[in-house]
User: What shape does this take?
Amino acid sequence: ESIGSRMRILREKQHMAQNQVAEKLGITVQCYGCYERDAYLPSYKVLKGMIEILGWDVTYLLYGEQKVSPP
Assistant: This one.
């Protein structure tokens, strides 16, 4: 599972289209589509937007793991 495939999963869980996510992040839909297809890796600025604007879990996005609360 890649970053791009996890981006798609998170986007679809929020019932959003690629163009909606791209608009929120201030990038083109073509650029966002390249991220989901793993043609490019998102920049730090775009990753930060995914986390802060869309509320996506950075651990899952980057590593495919959910956050685990400490005991």
In short: The two ends are 28 Å apart (CA to CA).
